[in-house]
Design goal:
Belongs to the carbon-nitrogen hydrolase superfamily. NIT1/NIT2 family. This protein is about 25% helix and about 30% strand. It is α/β, with parallel strands linked by helices. The protein is globular. The termini are far apart.
Length: about 280
């Protein structure tokens, strides 16, 4: 068996970079002390701020963001691979002051291996009355990413991307054997959809799905679902936090399970062209 120990960090990220780093760093250290080789944090690891003016004031390029820089150094210090599930940073597009919601993968030498900007932004009107327009503050990306790791390809997604199966299928066909889904799911959608979507994406792709989440009542007024989860390629839940409290979730992955699932149901090789309904 080819094994990998992963750790998913569940956070309740504060509204400032200094507080966010003080919150997440001890959890990452706990994960490394527990033997994790690959550690993943949730969406919005560097801060969560709804107020537009305060958010704009907190933005920095990812190579100058205080949390990104500190976590890059921490990965090197601990000798672990670290996925910053996402950091809210400047997009770098002149004339567009919206942020990028960016995943950043750091290797065990503190080198950036890959980055990915969230493709699908969360513009929804929920039955509870919650209204979200992420597109007003976040510039969506336009490039899917599979990062090379010592354990196979890691497909990068963020939160709302989970609702787009075509993205996950493309990642699997491009070499992903694991897919990261760092998230800050709302409570009503988390309760209704979180686990079933994660399991569906694992089953459809024959990939491990690694979903570290934000959880609880945040400083900026939002509430997130928590329940960080690891799904195996056959679709079974192999690790899960059953709450929204900050913490560390460990899982030992049998990486040979990817080949077993895909050999049993080789759906990634069964695509057929078809005509759309008239």
């Amino acid at each position: 068996m080819t094994a990998l120990r992963v750790a998913l960090i569940q956070t309740r990220t504060p509204a400032s970079a200094g507080a966010a780093l003080a919150h997440v760093e001890p959890l990452i250290r706990q994960a490394a002390a527990g033997g994790a080789q690959l550690i993943l944090t949730p969406e919005g690891t560097n801060f969560l701020i709804q107020n537009r003016e305060q958010r704009q004031a907190a933005l920095a390029p990812d190579d100058r963001d205080a949390v990104v820089l500190a976590l890059t150094a921490l990965a090197k210090e601990l000798g672990v691979w670290l996925l910053i599930g996402s950091a809210i940073v400047t997009s770098g597009h002149e004339g567009d002051d919206r942020a990028a919601n960016r995943s950043i993968l750091i290797d065990d030498h503190g080198r950036r291996v890959a980055s990915y900007d969230k493709l699908h932004v969360y513009d929804v009107d929920l039955p509870t009355g919650e209204r979200w327009r992420e597109s007003a503050a976040v510039r969506p990306g336009d490039q899917a990413v599979v990062a090379d790791t010592p354990w196979g390809g890691l497909g990068l997604t963020v939160c709302y991307d989970i609702r787009f199966p075509q993205l996950h299928r493309a990642l699997a066909k491009a070499g992903a054997t694991m897919i990261a889904v760092p998230a800050a799911f709302t409570v009503p959608t988390g309760e209704a959809h979180w686990e079933v979507l994660l399991r569906a994406r694992a089953i459809e792709t024959g990939c491990f799905v690694l979903a570290p989440a934000q959880g609880g009542a945040h400083e900026d007024g939002r509430r997130t679902w928590g329940r960080s989860t690891v799904i195996a390629p056959w679709g079974e839940v192999i690790a899960r936090l059953d709450n929204d409290e900050p913490g560390v979730l460990f899982a030992d992955l049998d990486l040979d399970a990817v080949a077993r699932a895909r050999n049993a149901v080789p759906q990634l090789t069964h695509d057929r062209d078809f005509s759309l309904p008239a």
